[in-house]
Amino acid sequence: MVLGRIIGWLFLALALLAGSAEVAVSLRAGRFTSLPLEQFWRDLNSASLDSAQSFARGMYPWLWDPGLITVLQMPAWPVLLGIAAVILWLFRAPVHSAPSRPQVIGGAPRHMRG
Questions:
Q1: Which segments of 30-62 does DSSP mark as H helices, in order?
Q2: Most CB atoms within 10 A, among 12, 74, 97, 112?
């Protein structure tokens, strides 16, 4: 549970980083420029992207094209934010309610009546 929440928070941090990078690229270009997930991943760690591509192409070619290619072409921050939201929701902390007190129906028990 805790590890899942940590991974979710890491994806949220990556989404914020990707959004900040998109803003920086847009400001530098002087116009809105979207930062695709593939480019963001390549900038962070191109070796892991290449490994993931090789694995997906070799093991699951039907999943790679068109599925993952489509996702990698989407803007990075909304994809990462969506992944973070799903992971954080799946591994959310359980809600503990206050222990319920026994409900007395019809007033006090007979032995307590005056």
A1: 37-59, 61-62
A2: 12
